[in-house]
Amino acid sequence: MEHTQRDLHKKHGLQSDDYDAWAPPSTGYVGHFPVRDEKQYSERRRIVNSVYSMSTVLESERSIIDRCTRLFCEKMHHFAQQGSVIDLDLWVNMYV
Fold first, then answer.
1. In this structure, are residues 14 and 34 in contact, taking their beta carbons and an 8 Å threshold?
2. Residues 88 and 94: beta-carbon distance below 8 Å
3. Whole-number Å distance between alpha carbons of 24 and 90
4. 2, 8, 23, 37 - which has most CB atoms within 10 Å?
5. Cα-flanking dihedrals φ and ψ of residue 28, to 5°?
6. Which helix (H) or strand (E) holds 24?
7. Which has more confidence, 6 or 30?
């Protein structure tokens, strides 16, 4: 897959005009991702690359999942203590 993407970038350029929609309006700053210059893109990508490493994502997910699970259980406990009638489908969907 990676080779296919690189081949397409070589053939058609880094990104199409469609990426202009992601640029902030009238600031003069293109942002990290919609930039089309290969060198600028590489430099900006290196800044955020470590944030998206598999180990960082897994570590963050564990922390976030644990926190969300705790909060969900606390809310359910609170509703149970109050004898509240809730839309469980809504709460489970928000949890997921």
1. no
2. no
3. 34
4. 23
5. 85, -15
6. none
7. 6
Sign for the CA dihedral angle at 23, 32, 61, 3 comes to: positive
What pLDDT is attached to residue 42? 82
Which residues have C-beta within 8 Å of that of residue 22, sequence separation ≥ 6? 31, 33, 34
Residue 27 pLDDT: 63
CA distance 43 to 46: 5
The 10s digit of each residue's pLDDT in 43-72 is 888 888 888 788 888 888 888 888 999 999
Return the pLDDT at 28. 63
The rounded distance, in Å, linking the Cα atoms of 78 and 71 is: 10
In this structure, the chain runs to a length of 96
C-alpha torsion 15→17→22→25, nearest 10: 140
User: What are the tens digits of pLDDT across the range 21-30?
Assistant: 666 666 666 6
Assigned token pair, 45: 């990508």
